[in-house]
Amino acid sequence: MPLTDTQIKNLKKQDKPKKYSDGGGLFLFIPPQGSKLWRLAYRYDNKQKTLALGAYPIVSLADARKKRDDAKRLLGSGIDPSQQAKLDKIHRRASNAITFNAVADEFLEKVEREGKADATMTKKRWLIDLARDDLGTRPISEISAAEILVPLRRVEAKGNYETARRMRSTVGQVFRFAIATARAENDPTGGLKGALTTPTVTHRPAITQRNALGGLLRAIWGYEGAPETKHALMLMAYLYPRPGELRLAEWAEFDLEQSAWTIPAARAKMRREHKKPLPSQAVEILHIQKELTGDGRLVFPSIKSRVQPISENTLNGALRRLGFTQKEMTSHGFRATASSLLNESGNWSPDAIEAELAHVGADMVRRAYHRALYWDERVKMADWWAEEVESMRSSTN
Q1: Considering only CA atoms, which of 232, 239, 277, 269 is closest in space to residue 358?
Q2: Residues of the signal sequence (predicted)?
Q3: Average pLDDT of 267-275?
């Protein structure tokens, strides 16, 4: 007869092992020690086998019967329940070993192999580290959106809304890497886009009025500090690169005879090589600068070490000494300045301007056009802009 809970509770240990059948191969095994252990007797491949189902009362009578029925279904499909139990155990151990920390470390190694800039790697590591205390030891396949929201809310609570947004994006990259490498089935961060506070966009300060820009240019050309800093500011005005691209520039990147500067993919923000035409005014400044630092690798080395570039604050600090506050102009602002005035002129196609700024086009076709089709226009545009800089610098209106 089938067992009952009352009967099982009243069973006592005996001097010899005892079995109590529940039917369908399920039985309760009580060794002399008194434990109450569920077992399933079955035949597979013409062999008598026994499957352990757990101990009573942790595994209740109802649970034991369900496990028996599940095993019978496996047998009906030609699967040995004991072998399946071993595979499930291995899978659980493997899943537990694949933690967020382990996958995140692999992801960072992959990104670094792809040649991402040191600054990019530092930011990714920092953003991922913000999540490690809460997610690090958890199996990545088991992490829920609610768990990820905990460290995100902690960052938001400090008012760092943009950091929280970037953290969600970077953690999402870890999950998508886990999906691509068969360690997870979904990215829980996707459902959190609407949960975070949208940061207020603050545009970088830039001077875009011609008269005011003329005053800035005259101040730069009259700068009495280090000549290397003056030359760097002059080139920012002529070429409007990203400050880091100029700060880290190496002499090997410049072909002064062909009037071209090729910024390597490893240093370009969009991770693709960017070639810029050089107007004659920029070439002249570079020749002068080469007399100062041409015996080294860097165009603008630090005064403390010839193998280290000038610091990130060198150009902005020079602008402050010239009297321009952080709210008026920054070194990055030269890009917005040039972009605004080039577009306002109506002389150049928007795509050529975007190409010169090294922005990513709408699709791969446009990227190819940016590199090739607009080169001649960009050469003319570079010369025109240099003449405009000279005109605004010389004007007293």
Answers
A1: 269
A2: none
A3: 75
Given the residues 67, 68, 166, 242, select the one marked as catalytic.
242
Which residue among 68, 166, 332, 378 is the active-site one?
332
Catalytic option among 154, 359, 366, 371: 359
Residue labelled with tokens 């190819």: 368
> Are 268 and 349 in a shared domain?
yes
Q: Tell me: the pLDDT tens digits for 335-385?
A: 999 999 999 988 988 888 888 888 754 344 445 444 555 889 999 999 999
Coil, strand or helix at 225: coil
Q: Of 48-52, 113-117, 128-132, 184-188, which gets the smallest average pLDDT?
A: 113-117
User: What CATH number is attached to the domain comprising 28?
Assistant: 3.30.160.390
330 Ramachandran zone, left/alpha/beta (phi>0; psi -120 to 50)? beta
The residue from 230, 335, 378, 393 that is catalytic is: 335
Q: Do 290 and 390 share a domain, yes or no?
A: yes
Burial 83-98 (b: 16+ CB within 10 A, else e): eebeeeeeeeeeeeeb
**91 is a catalytic site residue:** no
Residue-range definition of the domain harbouring residue 166: 100-195
Catalytic residue selected from 269, 272, 320, 371? 269
Answer yes or no: 332 catalytic. Answer: yes
CATH of the domain at 234: 1.10.443.10
Count structural domains, the chain: 3
- pLDDT for 363 equals 43
Tell me, yes or no, if 269 is annotated catalytic: yes
